[in-house]
Amino acid sequence: MTEPLLDHLVYAAPDIDELVTAFAERTGVKPVLGGRHVGRGTRNYLAGLGGNAYLELIGPDDPRAPEGKPATFGIDRLTGPRLAAWVVRPPDIEATVARARAEGYDPGDIGPLSRRTPDGTLLEWRLTPNRGDRFDGLAPALIDWLAAPHPTTNDLPVLPLVSLRGFHPDPAALLAALRALDVELDVAEGAPALEAVLDTPHGPITLR
């Protein structure tokens, strides 16, 4: 089962250049440069997952910067790649946040974000923040693209998403949060992890 509101998956690593190289070798597909996130010290690359969903590979814009690695998606704590988060696009982000809070789960306040594309275009959108109450990335962030073109409208290479599931030591608590957000994810008991299976030119691969 794949949640129909899925917008994108976030695959994070402490070195974005190494991540992109390894991903291209493993899958046979080279992701496309998305751009740099303004004021956040990160850079991303994109690949389609089929339909209106995509995979975001993200890491420090400068992996060897002396000021250290950004905290976004826990990048500053990573020692290797991790499927760190998933993001959904509800039809009304404010109503979704209000309903979730009324049902006992706080997805966080909605804040502005932006990035510059390789040609210098500024894209702006809104997102609930990377908070500690996301069940280690198992509860999704919420996104509103405003007037920005969705990344899947660009010419992205596509690696179809076969399945997405999660593992958490307290599945009941996670499932309650997902119900509050009105989204679905197959969840089993285990150490916190997201697991996505992609269909690639090299055969199915699993990201965790």
From TrEMBL:
<protein>
    <recommendedName>
        <fullName>Glyoxalase-like domain-containing protein</fullName>
    </recommendedName>
</protein>
<dbReference type="Pfam" id="PF13468">
    <property type="entry name" value="Glyoxalase_3"/>
</dbReference>
<feature type="domain" description="Glyoxalase-like">
    <location>
        <begin position="6"/>
        <end position="180"/>
    </location>
</feature>
<dbReference type="InterPro" id="IPR025870">
    <property type="entry name" value="Glyoxalase-like_dom"/>
</dbReference>
<dbReference type="InterPro" id="IPR029068">
    <property type="entry name" value="Glyas_Bleomycin-R_OHBP_Dase"/>
</dbReference>
